[in-house]
Structures are given as C-alpha cells and as structure tokens.
C-alpha cells in the first residue's frame, strides 16, 4: 500500500525525524509504518484492558452490594445464607 502526504508544518517534520531515530531507520516511510503498527497494537491492548476494567468494576459493585446486605442483615439471616451456600 502506498500512502503519500505532504505537510508544510516544520513540527510534523520534527516528529517524523524523531520517529526515524526511535525506530533506528533512515527512511521516513519505515518509521511511519512502524509507528502505525505500534498504534494498532496499543489500540488492541487498550480494548482488552477496557474489557478487563469493566469486568473488575462489575465484580467490585457486586461485592459492595454483598457488603451492604451483610451490614444490614441480622445474624440469623447471615447464618441462613451461609447454610444455603453449603448446599
């Protein structure tokens, strides 16, 4: 795939030069390609981590709910609940 773009912005040129140094290549196209690949990999990781965060948050909410129920329950209710877990 061939992608060409032109930017008169000197800051953009500096960014490309930094990418060339970071990825140890003399070619701007190779540096930009590696930067795009890195971005893609990071985006996949972010999606994975967001899913894990959602799952953990749901578990935290469930445990908070159980703590509240436990605080409000009488001892006999707690004992009955523990017995139901054994069955």
Distance, first to last CA: 62 Å
Strand content range: under 5%
Give the averaged pLDDT, no decimals: 89
State the low-pLDDT regions, or none: none
What count of helical segments does DSSP give? Answer: 3
Main sheet properties: none
Number of E-type strands: 0
Oligomer: single chain
Order of helices and strands: HHH
Based on Cα principal axes, name the global outline. rod-shaped
What percent of residues adopt helix (DSSP H or I)?
A: over 70%
Query: Strand pairing plus helix content: what structural class?
Result: mainly alpha
Question: What integer value in Å does the Rg equal?
Answer: 27 Å
Polypeptide structure, described:
The chain is mostly helical and about 90 residues long. It has helices at about 10-20, 30-70, 75-85. Helix 1 crosses helix 2 (about 30-70). The longest helix has about 45 residues, at about 30-70. The chain is rod-shaped, with a radius of gyration of 27 Å. The chain starts with 9 loop residues before the first helix and ends with a helix. The model has no long low-confidence stretch (mean pLDDT about 90).
Task: Describe the structure concisely.
The chain is 80% helix and 0% strand. It has helices at residues 10-22, 28-72, 75-86.
Topology at a glance:
Blueprint: H1 10-22, H2 28-72, H3 75-86
Give a quick set of tags describing it.
rod-shaped; 87 residues; single chain; mainly alpha
